[in-house]
Design a protein that fits this description.
Elements lengths: L1 H12 L6 E9 L5 H12 L9 H6 L7 E7 L2 E10 L3 H11 L4 E2 L2 E12 H23 L4 H14 L3 E3 L2 E3 L8 E5 L2 H9 L5 E3 L7 H9 L1 E6 L3 H13 L4 E4 L11 H9 L2 E2 L12 H17 L1 H12 L2 H12 L5 H11 L9 H9 L6 H4 L14 H7 L6 E5 L5 E6 L3 H7 L5 E4 L2 E2 L1 H9 L4 E4 L1 E2 L10 E4 L2
Helix pairs in contact: 18-19
């Protein structure tokens, strides 16, 4: 909810005595700057009211906080919003808001200011108190003694609900790292409600502005926006449509919030999700052009999808020629595989010298001995490992304890980590640009390296890689 987010910002930005927030919209027939708007408010309300309600004096005494102005210039006109925090009582705050509406010129241009509403900041504080009290009560209940009759129910509930985790500083469900799809909600309370319904792949935007983390995830995974059934939900949906790649939209009933829904209702409304082509806004906000652009962007994305399929089809034709020649040579008694295997066995016997360079280049030059079925779904093998990395590759290849090595731009070793923890360590790393490890290069690992600007990855072998960043190069031991 955009309004709720603004209230939270007001709480942090203004003194604790702030009780109300005056919110106004304005339209100006011309181009002005923020100081022009603030100056007009001070200048044109001066002398209208008694001295104790003079805007300048109120701000000096701290009874009125810092005036926030947000501008949007388009088509020769300036539109925007004004937020004025007040610690006056209700009557005085209403009088001040009415005085603001009398401003009819800003700079050299005519202007119109209309009060959108006066919000009670204490309501937002009460909401935070309610959420915190619920958390404390839940913790208290789990720590107190329970009857054996309640124990089974609590164990089942804990196993299903799990806990809220932090995903790159945003609250999220425990399955956010592993799920192929994500559900974007507004806040932490919405995630808790979804967890009670067994929905564990959620992430919260925590306000109307969409974080870069959510934008990046929406471009890599199927994304559902599950939002409140009010104007705040509409504003978040508009923001998501502008900057991220949303596939489906699900909404709580009109006038209700996601956190208020029962578990069975959450499942019901998620099952009623619709593609963005069928999405509607509950309140009257200007978002038709935003929705239209999002639909066109999604359609363009679908048109681009056949390109990698064609590329795969071309790669299928490449091994067809060697496979025919392989069939022909197998009929001749002079070419047999067992001698090749024995030569490979003899070439790998010396342990003191480590694996020779030849196996790394040999396997990449010849077709796979397992036939064409493997080439149908695997991409061509990466090129030969650069010589500067070979000593480290030989060191970790075949060791009983699998480990990974992190290097910087100067090829200096920064850290060694167990292979099973390598993705989490990459996410926490700083200054790492090269990774060498005795394990499988997966899509998850490629994505993690891309987020950390790692440009070289060397592993034992690769899994199926769907997306590879252009700046990242990966190699395999064999």
């Amino acid at each position: 909810m955009a309004d709720n987010n603004d209230k939270q910002n007001a709480i942090h930005d203004e003194p604790s005595t702030t009780k109300y927030m005056i919110r106004a919209d304005f339209t100006i027939d011309g181009l002005v700057e923020k100081p022009d708007v603030v100056g007009a408010l001070f200048g044109q309300t001066e002398g209208l009211l008694s001295e104790e309600l003079e805007l300048r004096e109120l701000q000096k005494s701290g009874r009125v906080g810092r005036i926030q102005v947000h501008l949007n210039i388009r088509g020769g006109k300036t539109r925007g919003t004004i937020d004025i925090p007040s610690s006056l009582d209700k009557v005085e705050t209403s009088i001040l808001a009415a005085a603001i509406e009398t401003v009819d010129r800003i700079g050299p241009c005519s202007a119109k200011i209309s009060i959108k509403g006066i919000d009670d900041i204490r309501v937002e504080k009460m909401k935070k108190i309610r959420e915190r009290a619920s958390e404390l009560l839940q913790k208290w209940n789990t720590e107190t003694h329970q009857d054996s009759s309640e124990l089974a129910d609590e164990v089942l509930k804990a196993a299903r609900v799990g806990g809220i985790i932090q995903y790159r500083h945003l609250p999220a469900g425990p399955e956010i790292n592993h799920s192929d799809s994500i559900i974007v909600v507004e806040g932490r309370a919405d995630i808790a409600a979804c967890l009670r319904a067994g929905v564990r792949n959620t992430i919260a935007v925590e306000g109307a502005s969409v974080p870069k983390v959510v934008i990046d995830l929406s471009r890599k995974r199927s994304t559902i926006a599950f939002l409140d059934g009010d104007r705040g939900g509409d504003l978040i949906l508009k923001e998501l449509l502008m900057y991220s790649d949303i596939d489906y939209v699900a909404r709580a009933p009109s006038g209700k919030e996601v956190e208020e829904l029962k578990p069975e209702e959450i499942i019901e409304y998620l099952s009623k999700k619709v593609p963005i082509e069928q999405a509607n806004f509950i309140s009257e906000i200007h978002a038709a052009d935003v929705l239209e652009k999002a639909i066109k962007r999604k359609a363009a994305k679908k048109i681009q999808k056949p390109t990698p399929i064609t590329a795969k089809a071309e790669t299928k034709k490449i091994p067809a020629k060697p496979s025919t020649s392989t069939r022909k040579t197998t009929t001749a008694p002079t070419t047999r595989k067992p001698p090749v295997q024995s030569s490979e066995r003899s070439s790998t016997k010396p342990t003191s010298r480590g694996p020779a360079k030849k196996p790394y280049s040999r396997d990449s030059r010849r077709p796979s001995s397992r036939g064409r079925s493997r080439d149908n779904y695997r991409k061509p093998e990466p090129p030969k490992i650069p010589d500067e990395f070979l000593p480290l590759v030989k060191e970790i290849d075949g060791k009983e304890k699998q480990e990974g090595i992190f290097l910087n731009d100067k090829l200096e070793e920064l850290k060694r980590v167990p292979v099973k923890e390598i993705i989490e360590e990459i996410k926490k790393s700083k200054g790492v640009t090269k990774v060498i490890f005795d394990g499988i290069i997966t899509q998850r690992l490629i994505d993690a390296c891309d987020e950390k600007n790692i440009d070289v990855v060397i592993g034992a072998r690769t899994a199926k890689i769907e997306r590879r960043p252009a700046k990242l190069k990966y190699y395999t031991f064999a």
